[in-house]
Structure formats: structure tokens, C-alpha cells
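Weekly sync, protein design subgroup
Attendees: M.S., D.O., the rotation student, P.L. (late)

Item 1: inverse folding check
M.S. brought a backbone from last month's batch and wanted to see whether the design step gives back something sensible before we order anything. D.O. pointed out we never logged the input encoding, so this time it goes straight into the notes. C-alpha cells as presented (306 positions):
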């Protein structure tokens, strides 16, 4: 077992930790409890090691989706890794049927059994891939600033090559997920085809460029959120008088607070709500069967009728 102090003295770990956002313990305080999602791949293995090196009391959570014949062995690998570095281990199993939107359904199943505050091993490269995926899906501005939570994504400033390097230096045999090279998954095509092509066209590291751009957009996003929060979104007159960019943002936040869908509403749904506020229609239906109505110049959202 490697202790936190010994790990933190390793030059590579010291350099990587300086760019991570793990919680800092106050002097003489008990170690911060940190839940980490660990699949056994290089990124999540590096997350586990760096979390321990930061001085946190770490629990490694492994989720077996049952997709691959050796998935049980991967859980054993993570358990051994946790024991080696002095972390606790928790195993979870979910059932996900093969079919459309497998990635999204597997992600939803995974997070349904993980602690709400679980930290993940997403890197800067993951962030760049997510930006491109959201871009081609027509995501709103906030979709271009993913992985912003420093507690949920403490190693998002690191590169995938650095997590591989860390595993190699510590002689960690990371789990190789064969699905990560399957072109049936959109993320894999972004990773193995789109980003290398963009690098070649731009003659630069596009992932780093996207990361810097996301950081700029994130600050502007925060400002727009503050301005939109000043709008009384249920006041139809105030909403109609607001700048369209702020009105859309205010409506999107209002819908997210009041419906059961995990994803943000589409631009079309938001614009239909603005039509209700402007008096063009008296009511409208948005995703999930929810209705938005105007009465006495006030808006309200109603869940689907049972």
C-alpha cells in the first residue's frame, strides 16, 4: 500500500496534483470523504491515485454493466487497486439491455447507483469531445462549457496522455475497454476521427483550443445566468419585454426546475413558451407532456395529466 504522503512526493504526481481541484483539508481536520467512480481504465485509475495523494479518504466505486464477459474480473482489478493505495471499495451492478441510445442508457443506469457527489475521471480530452458532440447536436451555449464542476471533475485539466503516463510510472495495468474503439459510438468517432482530423487541418492541438474557448464561454455563461435570474419568468409582460437571449435562458431554467426530464428543453420548446408569454397562443405543450399556460398575465407549468 502506498501512503498519501509518499505518493504526493512523487514528482509526476506532485505536478499533476497542482492542476487538479481536489478538496483541501484544513489543518488538523479529518480527511475529506471523496467518492470516486473507477472503471479501472487509465483515467479513473489516475483519479483514484491522485485523490488518495491529495489526502482525501477515498472510496472507489465500480459499476458492472454486464456488457463484457470479463466485467467481474474488472471489478476485482479495481478492488485490488483500491487496496494497494489505501482506498475503500464499493461494487455495483446494473442491467442495461442492448439497443438504441446504449451510451445514454448505460450512463443513466450508472449514475443511478453511484453517490450523487461522485467524482469522475474525465480529462481535458473528454471535455473537448463533449464540446464537439454538443455542438453537432445543436446544444445551447451552456452545452459548450461541459465538465465545469471542480468537485465532480477534479482532473479535467489533465490530458489523457498524462493519466496513461501516471499508470505506466506506477506500474498500474489499466483495464482496456474494447468498446472505446467501436465506431458505432459517436464519442469514439469524435475521439479517433474528428479530433485528429481537426488537429491536422488546424496544425495545432484543437482539444486545448476548445478547452480555452470553453473557459471563456463559461465566464460569459455565468454572467448571462445572473442577468436572466433577475427576470420574473412567470410575469408574461416582463418576460416579453426582456432581451430574447435572456428570456430564453430564464425560460430554460424555469422549465428545468419544474419538469422531470434530465435534458434541457429544446429551443423550439422555449420559443413556444415565449409565444405564450407574448400572447400569440394561450398555452403550449413541451417535451414530456408538460403544458405551459398563461392566465391573468402569469405563466404556470403543469405536469402531464395521469
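Designed sequence read out in the meeting:
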Amino acid at each position: 500500500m502506498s501512503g498519501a504522503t509518499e505518493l504526493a512526493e512523487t514528482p509526476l504526481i506532485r505536478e499533476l496534483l497542482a492542476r487538479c481541484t481536489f478538496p483541501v483539508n484544513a489543518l488538523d481536520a479529518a480527511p475529506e470523504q471523496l467518492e470516486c467512480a473507477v472503471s479501472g481504465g487509465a483515467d479513473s485509475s489516475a483519479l483514484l491515485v491522485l485523490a488518495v495523494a491529495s489526502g482525501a479518504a477515498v472510496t472507489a466505486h465500480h459499476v458492472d454493466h454486464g456488457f463484457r464477459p470479463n466485467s467481474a474480473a474488472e471489478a476485482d482489478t479495481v478492488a485490488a487497486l483500491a487496496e494497494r493505495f489505501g482506498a475503500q471499495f464499493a461494487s455495483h451492478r446494473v442491467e442495461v439491455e442492448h439497443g438504441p441510445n446504449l451510451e445514454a442508457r448505460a450512463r443513466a443506469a450508472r449514475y443511478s447507483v453511484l453517490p450523487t457527489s461522485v467524482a469522475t475521471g474525465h480529462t481535458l480530452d473528454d471535455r473537448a469531445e463533449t464540446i464537439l458532440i454538443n455542438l453537432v447536436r445543436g446544444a445551447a451555449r451552456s452545452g459548450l462549457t461541459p465538465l465545469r464542476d471542480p468537485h465532480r471533475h477534479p482532473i479535467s485539466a489533465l490530458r489523457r496522455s498524462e493519466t496513461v503516463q501516471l499508470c505506466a510510472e506506477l506500474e498500474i495495468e489499466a483495464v482496456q475497454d474494447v468498446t472505446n474503439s467501436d465506431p458505432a459510438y459517436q464519442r469514439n468517432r469524435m475521439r479517433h476521427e474528428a479530433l485528429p482530423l481537426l488537429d491536422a487541418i488546424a496544425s495545432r492541438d484543437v482539444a486545448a483550443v476548445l478547452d480555452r474557448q470553453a473557459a471563456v464561454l463559461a465566464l460569459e455563461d455565468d454572467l448571462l445566468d445572473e442577468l436572466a435570474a433577475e427576470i420574473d419568468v412567470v410575469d408574461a409582460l416582463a418576460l416579453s419585454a426582456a432581451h430574447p437571449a435572456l428570456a430564453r435562458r430564464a425560460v430554460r431554467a424555469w422549465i428545468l426546475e419544474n419538469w422531470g426530464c434530465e435534458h434541457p428543453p429544446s429551443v423550439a420548446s422555449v420559443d413556444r413558451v415565449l409565444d405564450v408569454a407574448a400572447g400569440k397562443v394561450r398555452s403550449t405543450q413541451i417535451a414530456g407532456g408538460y403544458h405551459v399556460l398563461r392566465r391573468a398575465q402569469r405563466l404556470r407549468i403543469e405536469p402531464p395529466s395521469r
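Discussion: The first strand starts at residue 33 and ends at 37. DSSP finds twelve helices and six strands in the chain.
Action: P.L. to compare against the previous round before Friday.
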